[in-house]
Write a structure and sequence with these properties.
Its EC number is 2.7.13.3. The chain has 1004 residues and is of the alpha+beta class. The chain has 25 helices and 38 strands.
Length: 1004
């Protein structure tokens, strides 16, 4: 069916689109679809077939080219090998010396160098043959050569490779020759003849393409070797069309003529050194036939597909055209039955549905018109509608008539103003919209003759025709008089609120005040800038949640604050007051005092909390400082009272402790005055005097040690000490002295070494054991233990006494603190022993602790342990020393007499003096084993006596005696020349040790 182009009318097309589709039947378009779908497919198939043929052609070309290149490489390698062998042979001595007979003999006697050689030929530079290796040597022939030729520029000519020599069908060979240089001149050409069969044998190692051939040709295009019919074509020249292409390029691929007839596809490769060439080809006819057959089959398949598609489409199009034609001419009712094409059936159903919808739309439109008329007449919004641009006919609803006071047949008596300016009629909203403008949110005033003023909000839009031009307009007017009045009242209220807020801000700035508002249900907390500043935050209003606000409160106060608020909510309190500290945003602790007002629902659920907070840090600090001072004053008063009681108890104890030994000594002296000195009672009395005197000395030593320890003036003479051995020795000494006779003492000691002062360590052990004896009943065991634990030495003294009262336990190591005493004060002591133990342990970098209960107490001393060392001195054996000569210089007559008597009774010779000068003379005259010199002597002091004695050569032992035992006293004595320093009263055991020592000059 012919198609004629017609313009498409009634369609909204882009202006730039110029395509015009021809008007035709559906059958024509379906046939066009078949053609459009089939032709590209056929074209694609043909293109793919062509690509496949080209790929096969390329693969064939690549294979032929590679075969030609491989064979060219083999031929070139054979030629190069022959040139190398000839070059080596040309250096033969016989040849260079001109002895051609010997050279020929050598060639004839030995096999040829290369198996492919037929013979070796020697020619003159002019080409005259001088000898052949396969013929007998002819001297006349060898002498026929001319003179050697000079070398141009001193360079030998290159080797020569000839083409195929001989007559086709006869003996064919090729020759390779190299120049022979003798004395700088060209003397000979040495050549090797290679039979054509050698080249034929060489190509036998190369597999020719299936149905193809391999050819070797020389520079004159004569066939040297051929894989296909070599007996027919050996020595013949290649076809003319092949030579034409091969003479232009060194390698390539082309379609050429076959010697057998027909065409061939051949790839060739020339050998640059000899200009020989290699040709590898296949017959062209089979390949061309298969390519033509493939293309023909593709075109035939496309044509058959096109014809079948057209035929089938003509059959199917009837099923489409008939119902469509019926729908177009008779409507949806013209096709009542089933339709085979689903889309046409849907189209019929859609047409039926469209008819029904059109009827429903008409009914709805009529209902909407009735609704619009009702809305138009009853709406409180003023409406104006005009259908002409000049607004000659205007339809107004009753609300608009009431707003503007318009009456039919009367002119308008109102004025419309904007920003105090009267608007002309042309600038009214409806008139502006009728001219095509859009009016949006225009505030106007309508002033009536009676003075009434309405404030209206006007909107107006144009009504457009089909060409986009204004054909009328619609305007609405909303009475906003009451709203504007309310807005003005709101603005005035907002102004007053802002003034109040300014006052609050000023109050916050001036008085460290902040406010907050917590909406419980929404969990929002709003802090003013003043409150944010009090929390150390950025100075602005901050909104957060309750948990976030609590993070700014000190954790301890936050828990108390939440508990307080929960209780207030349960009690439905309307006001709550509390204090709290802020969290750690600030460098100082800040206290805030808050008063909250809580609002509740009728059911008692808290809804809102509004509060004010004031910085009361200064007041709180004053209160805390006052509380601290009160507590400090109270504690100081308690300490003073306790110290006063301790002083009274100490004086009472001291008086008791001093009166007891003094009473015993006084009574003993009275007894001595009444009886004989040899009486048994006198012996017991002297023992009492000795024991009580030692007790007084110990009391004085403890008092002085405590005073020195408290003042920090005690000096430790540190040395390695075996703590276990020392404890064992000290406890044994106390047992022998009868101090532990009422208590069984068990020892558990290990060898643990410490770095300490042995005398001070003995004080610690003695005080702890003595303390256990005092407060343990008779027959109660005492256990002393020394072990090494965790790198420390641990000394434990365990008793089974009544234990330490719980109130006394924290103060047990304080000065003058004692447990409960009986009236007879059987335990004795001044309350300074444990204080001395703690201070001495601390001086040794250790510590002391106590555990106590009703079943007894455990005192433990921990000291740093050291590695064991070998003792460097021999302990005292306790043996009585041999009689010695002693000089005693003492200004106190009683002390001098008592000490002289004691030493004399021990068998020693004693010489006493009461001043320093006589003492020095006596000392130098007697040269005693030991000199005891008091420090505070009249005349010469003890230091001067020692110094002058040493200067005058005295080498004996000298001991300073004094009532002072400070470290600087000991150091001063040693610097003066004394060997030791003893504190009064003198320890008899220490004195015995010095007397037992060998003479000082004997040990020097």
């Amino acid at each position: 069916m012919p198609m004629k182009p017609l313009p498409l009318q009634g369609l909204n097309r882009p202006r730039g689109l110029r395509l015009r589709w021809p008007v035709a039947s559906l059958r024509t378009y379906l046939l066009a679809v078949i053609v459009v779908a089939t032709v590209p497919l056929a074209a694609l198939t043909s293109w793919l077939m062509a690509q496949e043929i080209m790929a096969v052609r390329h693969q064939m070309t690549l294979g032929l080219t590679q075969t030609a290149g491989s064979l060219a490489l083999m031929v070139e390698r054979e030629q190069v090998s022959s040139i190398d062998a000839l070059t080596i042979l040309s250096h033969a001595t016989t040849l260079r010396e001109g002895d051609l007979a010997s050279f020929h003999m050598r060639l004839a006697r030995k096999p040829l160098v290369r198996p492919t050689w037929r013979r070796v030929v020697l020619t003159s530079p002019e080409g005259v043959v001088l000898l052949r290796s396969d013929e007998a040597y002819a001297p006349a022939m060898a002498q026929a050569h001319g003179e050697p030729q000079p070398l141009p520029d001193g360079v030998l000519p290159p080797p020569r490779i000839s083409g195929l020599k001989g007559v086709a069908g006869a003996d064919l060979f090729s020759r390779i020759a190299v120049p022979v240089e003798v004395h700088g001149q060209l003397a000979y050409w040495l050549a090797a003849d290679i039979h054509a069969s050698a080249w034929q044998s060489l190509i036998g190692h190369v597999q020719a393409p299936q149905g193809g051939f391999v050819t070797v040709f020389d520079e004159g295009y004569r066939i040297v070797a051929r894989s296909l019919h070599p007996e027919r074509f050996l020595g013949q020249v290649l076809p003319e069309d092949g030579r034409r292409h091969m003479g232009v390029r060194s390698a390539g691929f082309q379609k050429s003529s076959l010697l057998e007839g027909g065409d061939t596809y051949v790839a060739w490769q020339r050998i640059p050194m000899s200009q020989w060439g290699i040709g590898v080809g296949v017959a062209a006819a089979p390949l061309d036939r298969s390519n033509i057959m493939a293309i023909s089959m593709a075109l035939l398949a496309g044509a058959l597909s096109l014809m079948a598609g057209i035929g089938l489409s003509l059959f199917v199009v009837r099923r489409v055209n008939q119902p469509l034609h019926a729908l177009a001419t008779g409507g949806a009712s013209a096709v009542p039955g089933d339709i085979a094409v689903r889309e046409i059936g849907l189209l019929r159903d859609a047409m039926k549905a469209a008819e029904a919808q059109r009827e429903q739309a008409r009914e709805r439109l009529e209902a909407k018109a009735a609704e619009f008329e009702t809305l138009f007449n009853t709406s409180p919004i003023g409406l104006s509608i005009t259908q002409d641009p000049e607004c000659r006919m205007v339809l107004r609803n009753p609300a608009k008539v009431a707003m503007f006071g318009i009456r039919d047949g009367e002119p308008a008596r109102y004025e419309m103003l904007q920003d105090g300016e009267v608007l002309p009629t042309a600038r009214h909203p409806l008139q502006r919209a009728a001219r095509g403008e859009t009016v949006w949110n225009q505030e106007v005033e309508v002033r009536h003759p009676d003075g009434r003023v309405l404030r209206l909000l006007a909107f107006a839009v144009p009504l457009l025709d089909g060409h986009g031009h204004a054909r009328g307009a619609i305007a609405t007017y909303v009475d906003i008089t009451e709203r504007m009045l309310a807005q003005e009242r709101l603005m005035r209220a907002r102004t007053r609120l802002q003034d109040s807020q300014h006052l609050v801000e000023l109050a916050q700035e001036a008085g460290d005040v902040g406010f907050f508002d917590h909406v419980v249900a929404a969990d929002t907390v709003t802090m003013t800038s003043g409150l944010a500043r009090l929390f150390g935050l950025e100075r602005r209003a901050i909104e957060t949640h309750w948990a976030g606000w609590l993070r700014h409160v000190h954790p301890d106060d936050a828990r108390a604050l939440e508990a307080l608020l929960q209780q207030a909510w349960r009690d439905q309190l309307e006001q709550v007051t509390f204090k709290f500290r802020t969290a750690g945003q600030l460098d100082i602790e800040r206290w805030l005092s808050s008063r909250m007002v809580i609002l509740y629902t009728p059911e008692g659920v808290p809804t809102r909390m509004i509060g004010v907070m004031v910085d009361v840090t200064v007041q709180q600090q004053i209160e805390q400082e006052r509380a601290r001072l009160i507590a400090q004053e109270h504690q100081a008063r308690l300490e003073a009272e306790r110290a006063n009681r301790a002083k009274d108890e100490f004086l009472a104890m001291l008086g008791h402790e001093l009166r007891n030994p003094l009473s015993a000594i006084s009574a003993a002296i009275e007894v001595l005055n009444r009886i004989s000195s040899q009486d048994e009672q006198a012996v017991r009395v002297r023992t009492i005097i000795t024991r009580q005197t030692r007790h007084l000395a110990r009391l004085m030593d403890d008092l002085m040690d405590v005073a020195r320890v408290i003042a920090g003036k005690i000096h430790l003479s540190r040395q390695p000490v075996n703590l276990g051995s020392m404890v064992h020795r000290l406890v044994s000494t106390m047992q022998m002295a009868g101090l532990l006779q009422d208590h069984p003492v068990s020892l558990e000691v290990e060898e643990v070494w410490v770095d300490g002062d042995a005398m001070r360590l003995e004080q610690i052990v003695n005080n702890l054991v003595t303390n256990a004896v005092k407060y343990s009943a008779s027959d109660k065991p005492i256990h002393v233990r020394v072990v090494r634990a965790d790198g420390r030495a641990r000394l434990e003294v365990i008793d089974q006494g009544p234990g330490i009262p719980e109130a006394l336990l924290p103060h047990i190591f304080d000065l003058f603190v004692q447990g409960e005493r009986t009236l007879d004060r059987r335990q004795g002591g001044l309350g300074i022993g444990l204080t001395l133990v703690r201070r001495l342990a601390e001086l040794h970098d250790g510590e002391v602790g106590v555990q106590s209960g009703p079943g007894g107490s455990v005192f433990a001393v921990m000291l740093p342990a050291i590695a064991p060392v070998q003792p460097d001195r021999v302990e005292r054996t306790g043996e009585v020393p041999a009689p010695r000569t002693v000089v005693l210089v003492e200004d106190n007559p009683d002390a001098r007499e008592a000490l002289t008597t004691m030493l004399t009774l021990q068998g020693h010779e004693v010489h006493g003096e009461d001043n320093g000068k006589d003492g020095l003379e006596r000392l130098l005259a007697q040269r005693p084993h030991l000199a005891l010199v008091d420090i505070g002597l009249p005349g010469l002091t003890g230091y001067e006596v020692a110094r002058q004695a040493r200067e005058r050569g005295h080498t004996g032992w000298m001991i300073a005696v004094s009532g002072y035992g400070q470290p600087h006293d000991v150091q001063q004595a040693l610097e003066a020349g004394f060997d030791a320093h003893m504190v009064k009263p003198i320890d008899s055991d220490a004195l015995t040790d010095w007397l037992a020592r060998p003479p000082r000059d004997a040990g020097m």
